[in-house]
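Issue: ligand-bound run for magnesium ion - logging full I/O for the record.

Environment: standard queue, default settings, no custom constraints.

Inputs:
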Amino acid sequence: MNYSGIGYDLHRLQEGRKLMLGGIEIPFEKGSVGHSDGDVLCHALCDALLGAGALGDIGTHFPDTDPKWKGASSLQFLEHARKLLSDRRLRVVHVDAVVICERPKLGPHFPAMRTAIAKVLGLTADEISLKAKTNEGLGEIGRGEAIACHAIATVGSH
Ligand code: MG
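Outputs:
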């Protein structure tokens, strides 16, 4: 039996912060504001994975009030979600995500992100699908003030 889960996240972008996305640092003049490393892609994927197992959401498992997660790499969230699924005898089959930002161009960074995500989820890079969109210059994303991500995960019973 296969199950699907959906995830979404958005972070504000600010100058002088690192832009972490899919577990890697992207060279850019702005970065996301967040308690952890602000990695929207990992956060949306984490919620999708938790959703597929009906395991609650990222805020339940990694509260931003917990100093343990301050500045944490969000790949750890994915690793933990994978473990929670595995405790329920569920394994990750596939993930797909759309990252929405005006800049920078993300395509050239996708191979490294897919490798990083695949490693923590126990998948191959082929099983990680990543896509990028702009917001056509509209709204806070279009003005470069925010970055967002939608994700879906499929898990299967062992
Ligand atoms: Mg987040």
